[in-house]
Design a protein that fits this description.
By secondary structure, the protein is mainly alpha-helical. Helices cover 68% and strands 2% of the residues. A hairpin with a 2-residue loop joins strand 1 and strand 2.
């Protein structure tokens, strides 16, 4: 897999996971007898993530939770055309890459189209992030910044390890 395809796949995955996580959080608590709900998939502590925040750790009020549900629902509806364009651009690029013989102009054009759609998706994600951030109190915003910094530090640490697994301790 080429470096560009890895990057593209990663960007799409991040966009879809972020949108999906926001959608799961927006569903609210489960009805009685329906299981543990969206937080069950979020890992230890049941922390749901949306727009880069660990919202489950911010002690949101019920009104804030409802506002965030409304924001994520609106974002999901507004970004649907961008998601469809992204899928089409990815398919077009894949077709251009796989075409024989290689048509460099077609590949470049498809890559540029894909990059433009990815930029649109990044703007949508930034809007979601900003809209949710505006709902938070000053204290919650500060805690969200701290949590984001911690997540970035962990991600950087994983990148530096290069996927190496920690050494097992000898007992």
């Amino acid at each position: 897999m080429t470096r560009f395809r890895k990057f593209t796949s990663g960007a799409v995955l991040v966009a879809l996971v972020g949108s999906g996580a926001a959608a799961l959080y927006a569903q609210g608590p489960p009805a009685a007898g329906r299981g543990r709900g969206p937080a069950a998939f979020a890992g230890p502590g049941g922390r749901g993530f949306a727009a880069g925040f660990a919202l489950g750790q911010l002690d949101l009020s019920d009104a804030q939770k409802q506002q965030i549900r409304d924001i994520t629902k609106r974002h999901r509806e507004q970004s649907q055309p961008v998601v469809q364009r992204l899928q089409q651009a990815m398919e077009a690029q894949r077709a251009a890459i796989e075409a024989m013989p290689v048509n460099e102009a077609l590949v470049r054009s498809a890559a540029q189209d894909l990059a433009a759609v990815q930029a649109d998706m990044a703007v949508e994600q930034a809007r979601l992030h900003s809209d949710i951030f505006a709902v938070l109190t000053v204290e919650q915003q500060e805690k969200a910044r701290q949590l984001e910094a911690q997540a970035k530090a962990k991600a950087q640490e994983r990148r530096q390890r290069g996927g190496q697994r920690p050494q097992k301790r000898q007992v």
